[in-house]
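Tokens for chain A. Residues wanted.
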């Protein structure tokens, strides 16, 4: 069942989203060669608590940290670690903020120091792919219109779209219906209605779309060791168009 949120509920999710966006803005300032993703994780957890919120990912199906920190060939769900980030790395920080029971979810990829042109282009195209999806998030369209817009743009630009991890409805639970794949045909799937709240969170790879999971049971890597990036917003479907709850 797809839950429809009232305007008031959407505003509560927006408040969670504002804390999340502010946390991303601070993380952007912290990211440089030498910092560890564990330090970023601790910063994020403290930031959320100081703002009266909690990190929803911590303890979710046993996930041990406030953030996911996915470096280079890690697609998503990487564990924060004590390994310092290096000049030229790319890193995705993914977080879910819980403010008084209402959630917001946003992942953002960052360049560490000076990155190669190849890495920068992956970051730029992945962010643009997210916005191609957001453009389709309007009343009357279907989920497939979002999926198709993301996939066709990503593939035109020469990247592969990850299939195993997808966007989702969100509200008082992290993962609600509907599923929001970043690939597939247009004009299919549930119709978008005012009051739905979903995430769009494409992961694009430079090589194959295939992934494998590390021994830790969480860390998803590209099968061929190629680079992967991800951008994610939480957004509400409104009669005035997509309303971003996690805009930085
Ligand atoms: N934020 C992720 C998503 O976009 C979920 C991370 S899984 C967790 O759906 F276990 F780390 F929470
Ligand atoms: Co998500």
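Reply:
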């Amino acid at each position: 069942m797809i839950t429809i949120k009232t305007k008031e509920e959407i505003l509560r999710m927006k408040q969670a989203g504002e804390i999340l966006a502010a946390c991303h803005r601070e993380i952007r300032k912290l990211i440089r060669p030498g910092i560890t993703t564990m330090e970023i994780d601790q910063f994020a957890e403290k930031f959320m608590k100081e703002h009266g919120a909690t990190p929803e990912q911590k303890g979710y199906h046993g996930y041990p940290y406030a953030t996911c920190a996915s470096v280079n060939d890690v697609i998503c769900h990487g564990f924060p670690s004590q390994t310092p980030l290096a000049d030229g790395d790319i890193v995705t920080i993914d977080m879910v903020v819980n403010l008084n029971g209402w959630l917001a979810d946003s992942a953002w990829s960052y360049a560490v120091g000076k990155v190669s042109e190849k890495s920068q282009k992956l970051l730029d195209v992945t962010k643009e792919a997210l916005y191609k999806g957001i453009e389709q998030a309007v009343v009357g369209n279907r989920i497939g219109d979002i999926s198709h817009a993301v996939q066709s743009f990503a593939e035109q630009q020469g990247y592969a779209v990850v299939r195993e991890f997808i966007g989702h409805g969100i509200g008082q639970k992290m993962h609600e219906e509907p599923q929001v794949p970043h690939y597939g045909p247009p004009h299919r799937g549930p119709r978008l209605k005012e009051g739905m709240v979903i995430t769009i969170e494409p992961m694009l790879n430079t090589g194959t779309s295939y992934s494998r999971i590390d021994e830790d049971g969480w860390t998803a890597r590209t099968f061929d060791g190629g680079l992967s990036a991800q951008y994610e917003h939480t957004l509400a479907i409104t009669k005035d168009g997509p309303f971003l709850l996690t805009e930085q």
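The chain has a mean pLDDT of 98. The longest strand covers residues 90-99.
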